[in-house]
Amino acid sequence: MKTKIEILAPAKNLIQGMAAINAGADAVYIGAPQYGARSNATNSVEDIAELVLYAHLFKAKVFVVINTILYDNELKDCEKLIHELYNVGVDALIVQDMAIMEMNLPPIVIHASTQANNRDPKKIKFLADAGMKRVVLARELNLSQIKEIHETTPVELEFFVSGSLCVSFSGNCYMSIANGERSANRGSCAQNCRLPYNLIDGNRETLLTSSHLLSIKDLNLTDQLPQLIDAGITSFKIEGRLKDVVYVKNNVSFLRKKLDSFLEGNAQYEKASSGRTFFNFEPEMDRSFNRGYTDYFVNMRTQKIGSWDTPKSQGQYIGKFLGTKANGYLIENYEQLNNGDGLYFINAEGVADGLQVNIIVNDVVVPNSFKAIAPGTEIYRNSDAEFNNLVEREDSAIRKIGVQLIFTDTQTGFELKAIDEDGHTSIAQIEQKKELTKTGESIIPNIEINLAKSGNTPFIVDKVEVNFSENWFLPISKVNEIRRNVLAQLVEERVKNYIREEHQIEKTDHPFPEKELDFTYNVSNQMAREFYKRHGVSEIEKAFELQWDPGKSRVMVTKYCVKYELGKCPKFQRETMGEKVKEPLILKQGELEYKLKFNCKPCEMEIWEKDAELEFEED
Q1: Which of 5, 8, 73, 391 has the smallest count of CB within 10 Å of its CB?
Q2: Phi, psi at residue 49, to the nearest 5°?
Q3: Does position 532 have pLDDT exceeding 80, yes or no?
Q4: pLDDT digits (tens, 9 = 90+) for 395-423
């Protein structure tokens, strides 16, 4: 049996979920009314139910995100919601809080969210043995680490391949709650990592001003699909439940084409859903929101990954600024630009800036408002008006299921049989007095043409057979009627015969790899505490949200490293780093200050609040 390889797309809402499926997604993940890590991307159970019906038509799946940490007073309502989601046909839940494993659950499949900080093979094997069918891996892992996890346990592995990156280990960022009582683990991240900071050294000298020192580029691993599949990944996840429909369709379509190219003729792997997508646009990753791209750490630490100029979209590189002419600009490759485009550049002060194209006259790009730009400045397009208008159209990506039609005559009329690409069948009949054609000429070619018209149905007719015993006459209106009926029945047949994987969670007691858990395990309720205790954990610290010590806490651990970005890493850049920087390095934003601590052995950086007492090791 071939291994199914899945494209998993974000769905902000019902409309974007359907658009993602049309663009070729094998599955979508969507937020419920509560308990999702994006509080601005919630959806009613009714909308989720409608998305489930549409997805299942294509044998695509719907996963619901319930990945916040839960408080004791929310557990009963959360359990009730899970039952409602199961009853409307949801395929799986993506969870962080282990309290859910203690609930009285229906037989619904459970996935471990990346917020559970899934990096360690032993912990991932533990989660699989506890009944989780899939683990969403931490984004910081490299190929060899992924392979080690895959060899440790046969659990399904999901990995992000495009979209924005959390600079922190997922689920372990507490900057937002520490500074504004908005918990990222409760779905309300304030995105402190995208703010501008001054960088100050241990001598209180300012090294950099107003730089977005914790903002990193966006992820793009679309050229690494074969290597990731070889390492054990079977689900490729696109980040972006807060992004617009152009972003979702463009990313899904790009990944669909890449993956289909790999799967074509492959004896070992196949796509995870049915149908094929027809595109009326050419997907390109850099034509929708991006801060520039990085492969992060999948190939180890090889490049700088910071996006210090701005946390906003950089977009697609156009060319260099050549100069001014009349009331506009001369720009390399200006012919790529359209009226209404947004342009991005770094101005003379070294600050990210932008403007909008009003009109292009001959070779002159006329902006809505004139700004001084130095010759040689690199110009990017971060809003592509023509592309956006094209992709937003409903018919820019259409998905169809292949079907074969066999039309025969019967004793009392005619019968049309439809067989789809998955082997589902439907049969429609019409009672019709049979008469031979008056001219003696065959009308079969005309019948074939009309049977092949699948219109707005989810089907495309790949083959038509007309097998008549005589040269019968049949009005085209009757041909159209029986075609409509058989395809409508086939839709019902596909949805009715969709087989949802089910799995009943049973309580286990195998030992957790750790005996003591600190606050980064985010234990915020009694049921999660009971789960870990039953699995042999003796000491459990409360979640950060329940015991935060203002001014003295560690608010982040990350693989991203400010020293490396500065060229001052003693591990990788010793020969070229020059003079060491005096520690502690401090990030300052208004009255807020954070101390940076660098742990070179695991190659990690910690961020602490200003009153924390830190010890620094010699490089």
Answers
A1: 73
A2: -60, -40
A3: yes
A4: 999 999 999 999 999 999 999 999 999 99
Give me 360's structure tokens: 């292009």
Nearest C-alpha neighbor of 366 from the set 333, 325, 335, 336:
325
Q: Where are the domains of the chain?
A: 3-165+217-273+281-287, 174-213+509-619, 315-392, 400-496
Task: Give the model's confidence band at 335: pLDDT under 50 very low, under 70 low, under 90 confident, else very high.
Answer: very high
Token reading at 478: 């009757």
Interatomic CA distance for residues 146 and 140, integer angstroms: 10
Distance CA(120)–CA(421), nearest Å, equals 40
| Claim: this prediction has a pTM higher than 0.90 | yes
Among residues 558, 7, 5, 14, the alpha carbon closest in space to that of 241 is found at 14
Nearest to 2 by CA among 262, 263, 261, 224: 263
How far is CA 21 from its chain centroid?
13
Closest CA to 490 of 575, 545, 419: 419
Strands 109-112 and 435-436: unpaired
At residue 617, the pLDDT reads 63
Here the contacts of 355-363 (C-beta below 8 Å, separation 24 or greater) are 356/383, 360/334, 361/328, 363/325, 363/330, 363/334
pLDDT tens for 218-247 read 999 999 999 999 999 999 999 999 999 999
Distance CA 9, CA 481 (A): 36
How far, CA to CA in Å, does 425 sit from each of 274, 454, 465?
Answer: 15, 16, 15
Question: Chain centroid to CA 480: how far?
Answer: 41
∠160-281-51 over CA atoms, to 5°? 55
The answer to whether 417 touches 425, Cβ cutoff 8 Å, is yes
CA distance 475 to 547: 77
Instruction: Give 508's pLDDT tier (boundaries 50, 70, 90).
Output: very high
**H-helix or E-strand spanning residue 419:** strand 413-420
584 prior amide bond cis, ω within 30: yes
Is there a contact between 65 and 78 (Cβ–Cβ < 8 Å)? Answer: no
Rounded Cα–Cα distance for residues 419 and 63 (Å): 29
Q: What is the crossing angle of helices 245-263 and 385-392, to 10°?
A: 80
Pairing of strands 585-589, 539-540: unpaired
End-to-end CA distance of the chain: 52
Task: Decide if pLDDT at 619 tops 70.
Answer: no
CB 75 within 8 A of CB 528: no
pLDDT of residue 482: 96
Whose CA is closest to 112, among 77, 157, 152, 78?
A: 157
Secondary structure of 65-87 in HEC code, one letter for each residue: EECCCCCHHHHHHHHHHHHHHHH
Helix (H) or strand (E) holding 486: helix 476-496
Whole-number pLDDT of residue 226: 97
The answer, yes or no, to whether residue 212 has pLDDT greater than 80, is: yes
> What average pLDDT is seen over the chain?
95
The domain covering 3-165+217-273+281-287 belongs, at the CATH homologous superfamily level, to: Aldolase class I (3.20.20.70)
Strands 156-163 and 134-136, by their bridges, are parallel
CATH match of 315-392 with 2.30.29:
no
